[in-house]
Amino acid sequence: MDWSSLEALEEILKDKTSSIGKIVDLLPKQIAFGVLQACINTRPTYLLRALHPDDSEDFAKGFDAVMDGAEYAKILRGLPIKRGGLSLARCETIAKPAYAASFLGSLKSSWIS
Fold this sequence. Notes:
The protein has helices at residues 6-17, 20-26, 29-40, 45-50, 53-68, 74-77, 91-112. By secondary structure, the protein is mostly helical. The protein has one domain (6-107). The chain is globular and about 50 Å long.
């Protein structure tokens, strides 16, 4: 699969976000929040670490848009808990640092070996 093609990223986005509506509708709000925070919101992290930010920008925006629509205020989503937020990372915000950390980590491991 060509991960950088737009069609492949759209398919991955649908796969990663297909369960969000069901989780929010079927589970009590506190449990739904825990599942969204620990399971769903972490799904795109590998993709963001593996793809250059220019290639993953639309995917990150699309994932954020779906997560923002899951009954949680857009502003509160990215704020830390101590500031009254939900502490759910926004993909668009973490895409570049995630890629840079992965890239630098691979350089470090290649120097050690």
